[in-house]
């Protein structure tokens, strides 16, 4: 197996949190993020992505940020531990297909 193939198979658990002031870009951003993963809080999404999907997501995010807005992306490896308190919606990640 080639070194690049191994890297491509590596999955990241990605947490994306955002604070977008205007409704239209916020709604469009949440639609985009829904195509990658699942909503875990009102302004937070989790996704399991390979390197190519991760790079595509990062490239797409810039268009949703205005002067007063922020988007934060946390990249962890797929086996990173997540501890949840309160309402627990166990996120089961299947392969995500991005169209």
TrEMBL record:
<keyword id="KW-0255">Endonuclease</keyword>
<protein>
    <recommendedName>
        <fullName>CRISPR-associated endoribonuclease Cas2</fullName>
        <ecNumber>3.1.-.-</ecNumber>
    </recommendedName>
</protein>
<comment type="function">
    <text>CRISPR (clustered regularly interspaced short palindromic repeat), is an adaptive immune system that provides protection against mobile genetic elements (viruses, transposable elements and conjugative plasmids). CRISPR clusters contain sequences complementary to antecedent mobile elements and target invading nucleic acids. CRISPR clusters are transcribed and processed into CRISPR RNA (crRNA). Functions as a ssRNA-specific endoribonuclease. Involved in the integration of spacer DNA into the CRISPR cassette.</text>
</comment>
<dbReference type="GO" id="GO:0051607">
    <property type="term" value="P:defense response to virus"/>
</dbReference>
<keyword id="KW-0051">Antiviral defense</keyword>
<comment type="similarity">
    <text>Belongs to the CRISPR-associated endoribonuclease Cas2 protein family.</text>
</comment>
<keyword id="KW-0378">Hydrolase</keyword>
<feature type="binding site">
    <location>
        <position position="19"/>
    </location>
    <ligand>
        <name>Mg(2+)</name>
    </ligand>
</feature>
<keyword id="KW-0479">Metal-binding</keyword>
<keyword id="KW-0540">Nuclease</keyword>
<dbReference type="GO" id="GO:0004521">
    <property type="term" value="F:RNA endonuclease activity"/>
</dbReference>
<dbReference type="GO" id="GO:0046872">
    <property type="term" value="F:metal ion binding"/>
</dbReference>
<dbReference type="InterPro" id="IPR019199">
    <property type="entry name" value="Virulence_VapD/CRISPR_Cas2"/>
</dbReference>
<dbReference type="GO" id="GO:0016787">
    <property type="term" value="F:hydrolase activity"/>
</dbReference>
<dbReference type="GO" id="GO:0043571">
    <property type="term" value="P:maintenance of CRISPR repeat elements"/>
</dbReference>
<keyword id="KW-0460">Magnesium</keyword>
<dbReference type="InterPro" id="IPR021127">
    <property type="entry name" value="CRISPR_associated_Cas2"/>
</dbReference>
<comment type="subunit">
    <text>Homodimer, forms a heterotetramer with a Cas1 homodimer.</text>
</comment>
<dbReference type="Pfam" id="PF09827">
    <property type="entry name" value="CRISPR_Cas2"/>
</dbReference>
